[in-house]
Amino acid sequence: VPRGGPRRSARGGRRGRCRVGAGPRGRGLPRMRPGSPAMAAPTEPLRRRKAAGAGPEAPPSPGSSPAASPTRLRAGTFWLTRIVLLRALAFVYCESAGTGGPLGNKPLIGDRGLTPCAAYLRSVRARFPGRGWAALRHAPTVLWLLDWSHMDANLDALALLGLGISSFVLVAGCANVVLMGALWALYTSLVNLLETGFLGIFLCPLWTLSRLPRRTPTSRVVLWGFRWLIFRIMLGAGLIKIRGDQCWRDLTCMDFHYETQPVPNPAAYFLHRSPWWFHRFEALSNHFLELVVPFFVFLGRRMCALHGALQLLFQARPLQAVLVVSGNLSFLNWLTAVPSLSCFDDAALGALFPAGPSSLKGQVLQIQEEEARGAPRAPQTYSPGAHAASPPGRVARRTVHVALGVLVAWLSVPVVANLLSPGQVMNRSFGPFRIVNTYGAFGSVSRERTEVVLQGSASPNASAPGAVWEDYEFECKPGDLGRRPCLVSPYHHRLDWLMWLAAFQTYEHNEWILHLAGKLLANDAQATALLAHNPFSGRPPPRWVRAEHFRYKFSRPGGRHAAEGRWWVRRRLGPYFPPLRLQDLEGYFASRGWPLPRARQE
C-alpha cells in the first residue's frame, strides 16, 4: 500500500492514513477487504510477477525492458544438452572415420590387408550356410549388401560417407534419425559395442534438421539410457578391478600402469616416477570414482550433475585430463565421456553458450517462458505464432521411447547378472547388434612391458655372426630407445595396439603378424605405409625378416641412460618367430587364401 495518501476505511468509510511499520505491533495498518481498491491496486503487479507474465494478453508493466527479462536458464529442460551430446558423439564418429579411412582400412582389412574382411565374411557365411539372418546376427555389417570383389572401394566409401555425415553434425549441432541411424549402421559395420551411437539415434526428430526442434523435445527416456550406460561402464570397470588383479586391492597398480599401458606418451614417462603415496592416492580415488560415484546418477539433479562433472574430470583415473595427457588411449576416453554429458541440463550448460535474443541460449529462455505460461509449442524451430504439434506425432514419439526403454531394460538383464557375478567378464555383448553390453578396463595390469620388434636383414645367411639386422619402427609403439614417446590421442594407430597385444601371446595366436612379415619381405607399399620407418626404403627388399621379444623399461630421469638421450632401456628375452624368407611362407599363405606378395624393388 503506498505510504502517506488518504484512504477510506474498510468499515465505515472514515479516512485515515496507512503507515507501514508504524510500530512494532503493526497498529498503524488498517484492515481491508480483499475486493477493495486499496488491495487490488498493489497486488495485480505482484500476481503478474509471480506468474512470470501469465497470459499472453497481460500488458507489460511500466518501465519494463528486455534487460529486465531473466537471463538464467531454468533447470529441468535439455535443449542444449541434446546439442552438446550430438556434437560430442559426432566428434567421436569423425575421429573414428579419420582413423579408419583410406589410410587405415585398406592395409588392415582391405583386399590385400593383413586380415581381409572378405575372407572373414566368407568364413562366417560358411559357418551359417543358408542362414542369412544368423550370419547377420554374428557379424552385423552393411558389407553383406555390397560387392566383395571391390572391398577396398567399399571401405573407402563407408569411411568417407561417415566422415561427411559426422562432420555435418559436428558443425551444425543438429541431426535427425536418418543421419544418426546411418552413422550407427556405418560404424557398427566395422566396430562392435556401439551402444552410445544407438542411443544417439533417438535423441533426434525423424526428419527435421534443427538445433531446437520444438516438436521433439529431448526424451527423458533417452537421457536415462545414456545415464544407465555411463553407470554400467564405470561400475563394471570398478568391479572387474576389485575382482581381478591383486594390485588393485593393495593399491599398487599405478606403480606399473604408466609404463605398461598400450601406447605411453611423454607425460607417462614422468608420471611413472611419481612418489609412492601419489600412486596409492590414484588407485584409491579410482575405486571411489568407479564404485561410489556412479550411484550419484540416481540421487537427484545436483548429485547427477556432480557425477557427470567428476566423470568428465576424473574418468577412470584420478584426472580425466591426466588420463588423456598420460596415455594414447585414443577415442576410448572421448567415447566414455559422451554419455556423461547427459547428466547436465540446460541450466548447467547455459554458461557454455553465448547470450542474446537470437542466440540458442536466448531461444531456449523464450521456450522456457512459454512453457511456464502454458503456451502451445511451435512446430519446428522457435516461432511464437506457429501452430502446435499434432497429438498423433507426440503419441508416436512417446510410444517409440517407451519401447526403447523396455528394450534396454530387457537387454540389461544379463548385463546386470554379469555385473553381480563373481565370474564377471568385460567388454562382452549378450545380444545381436551389440545394443546393450558389459564393459570394463584394465582388470589386470602388467608388471613388465614386453615388445615385439620386427627386424630385416639383407645378409645371405641369417645365422651368420656378421649378419646385420635393422629394426622396423612403428608410428607410436616403443622401438628405438632414443625416440620420444608420441602424443597422438584421440587418433588411434590400430596396428600399434595389435603389436602391443601380440607381445602377450605367441605368433601362433596372431597369424596376421606372419602376413605382415611376408609383406615386409616384398616391401609392400600398403604395409610399409603403416610404419614410421622402413629401413629398406629406397633399397632392395630384405632377404630375411624376424621378430625379437624384448622387455622395455623407462629410463630414469636424470640417470645415465637419460643423459644419453634414451627414453627406454631394453633387454632381449628371445626370439618371437625365427628368420623367414618369402619362399618359406608360400604354403602358409596358400593355406589361408592370402595372395603371395611380389617383391618390389625400390
Concise overview:
With 602 residues, the protein is of the alpha+beta class.
Could you walk me through the main structural features you see in this protein, from its secondary elements to its overall organization?
The chain is α+β, with helices and mostly antiparallel strands and 602 residues long. Helices cover 44% and strands 8% of the residues. The chain contains 24 helices and ten strands. The strands form four sheets. Strands 6-5-9-10 form a four-stranded antiparallel sheet. Strands 1-2 form a two-stranded antiparallel sheet. Strand 1 (6-8) and strand 2 form a beta hairpin. The radius of gyration is 32 Å and the shape is globular. The N and C termini lie far apart (97 Å). The model is unreliable at 1-68, 316-322 and 379-389 (pLDDT under 50).
